[in-house]
Amino acid sequence: MFIYILPILIIAFKTLESLIPSPRIEDIKKSYIAPPKLIEHFNGGFKVQVADSLWMRAIQDFDFCSELKPTSEQTLKGQPPECIGKSWLFNVLDVATTLDPYFDAAIYQTGGLALTVIISDYAGASVIFDRGTRLYPTTWQLLYAAAYHAHIEEKNKAKAARLYLAAAENGAPSWIRTMAGRLAGESGDMDYAEQILQTMIETNQEEKFVKRLKEKLDEIKAKTK
Question: How many domains does the chain have?
Fold first, then answer.
């Protein structure tokens, strides 16, 4: 008897399933909730494991911004909108790096770049880069990424010069040392900004990063014409 009823049940189930609208990815993402800061104290002694799981969650949505600025200089120019500080991605990275500060230099480099390049959460990127360079002062790839952010987004030449010099002293291409000196003297910004972006493109494999960096490079070239 059951063998005759089963096909009817399957058809009925499939019919009902087709009538229920599937939630859109955009709607699901809007419901993302950042991990609470209290998790730093209530993790059952599994700080490293929780940090690892948060990092794995973050890399799945590097391009997600929880709240965009309604209007900004970027949107007026037709560029991607800027993300309001303390984004979902920043909060996830903030908690992960607080639970396990020495997780890996890559979490600061890649996470910071995602914040500054992909979703334009410049305030959040500053926090992550500053924390990372304090803990990993000899990892030149991280230092270089942080210097890019300080130079291009923070417009802090003194800070950028210091970070570029540190990167050069720890294995970065030799021309970066010259650029650090030029920045310290506050000259040649546009030429070196173009050179910085080109190097960033060449040293990143992630498609999302490369695409946005190329857009920024085109913007710099347009300004120098």
Answer: 1
The residues near 162 (Cβ < 8 Å, ≥ 6 apart) are 180
Give me the residues paired with residue 83 across strands.
68
Distances (CA, A) of 27 to 17, 22, 84, 88, 214: 19, 10, 19, 15, 29
The residue type at 137: P
* 6-60 confidence digits (pLDDT tens): 455 454 444 444 444 444 444 444 557 777 777 777 777 788 888 888 888 888 8
Domain that includes residue 49, residue range: 36-224
Close Cβ partners of 201 (under 8 Å, ≥ 6 residues apart): 210, 213, 214, 217
Inter-CA distances, 101 with 41, 49, 130, Å: 15, 13, 12
Read off the pLDDT of residues 182-210 as tens digits, 9 standing for 90 and up: 776 554 456 666 666 777 777 766 777 77
Residue 151 included in any domain: yes
Residue 183 lies in a domain: yes
Domain CATH for 200: 1.25.40.10
Tell me the residue type at 81. P
17 inside domain: no
Q: What are the Cα distances from residue 183, in Å, to 114, 163, 208?
A: 25, 11, 28
Determine, yes or no, domain membership for 1: no
